[in-house]
Structure formats: structure tokens, C-alpha cells
Design brief:
217 residues; alpha/beta; Rossmann fold; 7-stranded mixed β-sheet; 8 helices; 7 strands
Length: 217
């Protein structure tokens, strides 16, 4: 647990079948709803730009932007995941790489990523953060997993009733999560030193903040 684990989650495989993706995202939606994930993002969004526009990078099934209730666009590169999002979400969805977002500078008030950065190696995560900063007008919100033994034990406990593939990904997600110093270091390396770290119930953390010299309308 001293360093982030390597290896890809099963749901990240471009060939992952629909049934597996539905099962994985159904579990993530449960975690986001009942273990604080959606509330963390919604609270950070309200602090920055209540009533503003939102870009969700790594949108998954679309549950968090739907819960926030913002005028939102969701981006994901995984075709199967976008198919799941179209089943469960009514927001506008775009297939794109988070490292090369197809939007002009300052296109959205807030750019957000939940449970996404831990899927990426550090250099790719830094690239995504830079793009999030570029596209954001007001600020950036990151919501992700804390990596420690207690979080791993908790993930093991709550995934006992679920499919083995979902359990595999949940445990690997924690092992690929971040410690406080690692999350802040990624933000600094990406040039987003304005982001503030907050720890939350459910072994979640957020990095959020307003861009310097932001002009709000």
C-alpha cells in the first residue's frame, strides 16, 4: 500500500461485455449514492458555481452529474460505458479522451472528475488535470478514493455479496487510489496549485477550488 498499484481494472477493457459493465456501474452507483460520493461532488460544485455548467470527465454511468442537477455534458472514451450512460442518464454525452478534451478554453463553469483519476497512471492523470483546468472557467473538482488499509478492508467487506469481477475492480480501485500528499503533488505538477484537499466519509477525498483571477458572471 506504500505505492499505487498498477494494472487495469476489468471494466476498463475495451472488450468488456455489456453485462459486466452494467454490474460494475450498478455497484458504483450504489457506492456514490449511499457512501457519500455524489454528495461530495455536489457540495463542491455548489461552492464554486451554483446553477452553472458542468463538464464531467470520465462520466461513467452519469449518476453524479445527474445528482448534481447541473447543465452537464459527460465525456468518456469507453464505448461500452457510454452505452451504459445512455441507458441511465439524460445528459449530453461525448466520446473523447480526457487528455485531449474537444472543447475550447473556459467552455464550462466547473470541470469535474469522480472515481476517474485512479484508473490512470500519474502522467496521464496530470494530463487530464491540465485539460480540466484549461476547459474550466470557474474551477475544478476531483472526487476520488483514499488509499489505505482501512479503505481496502472496507471495500472487501462491502463487495462480499457482489460478483467476483466487481470485487476485483473495487479492491484494485482502492490500491490505485491516492494518499493526501500524492493527490496534492499531482495537482501541483499539473499547475493546479489552487486546489484544496478535503477528506470525506467513505474513504473519499476531494480536490477542489476556484481558478485564480476567475471572473464570475
Amino acid at each position: 500500500m506504500r505505492e499505487r498499484a498498477r494494472g487495469a481494472e476489468l471494466m476498463d477493457d475495451p472488450a468488456a461485455d455489456e453485462a459486466s459493465l452494467l454490474s460494475a456501474h450498478r455497484f458504483i452507483r450504489f457506492v456514490n449514492r449511499f457512501l457519500n460520493g455524489a454528495r461530495v461532488s455536489a457540495a463542491a460544485f455548489r461552492r464554486l458555481a451554483p446553477g452553472g455548467t458542468l463538464l464531467d470527465v470520465g462520466v461513467g454511468s452519469g449518476d453524479i452529474p445527474s445528482a448534481i442537477g447541473a447543465r452537464a455534458v459527460g465525456v468518456d472514451l469507453h464505448r461500452g460505458t457510454l452505452a451504459v450512460a445512455r441507458r441511465w442518464s439524460s445528459i449530453l454525452l461525448v466520446r473523447a479522451d480526457g487528455r485531449r478534451l474537444p472543447f475550447p478554453d473556459a467552455s464550462f463553469d466547473v470541470v469535474h472528475a469522480a472515481m476517474f483519476l485512479h484508473h490512470l497512471p500519474d502522467d496521464d492523470a496530470i494530463g487530464v488535470l491540465r485539460e480540466m483546468d484549461r476547459v474550466a472557467r470557474v474551477g475544478v473538482v476531483v472526487n476520488d478514493l483514499v488509499r489505505n488499509r482501512r479503505a481496502l478492508a472496507w471495500a472487501w467487506l462491502i463487495t462480499r455479496p457482489v460478483h467476483a469481477d466487481v470485487r476485483h475492480d473495487a479492491l484494485l480501485s482502492v490500491r490505485r487510489g491516492f494518499r493526501r500528499n500524492e493527490a496534492l503533488a499531482l495537482a501541483r505538477r499539473a499547475g493546479l496549485g489552487y486546489l484544496e484537499y478535503r477528506a470525506h466519509f467513505g474513504h473519499r477525498f476531494s480536490l477542489s477550488g476556484a481558478k485564480p483571477c476567475t471572473t464570475r458572471s
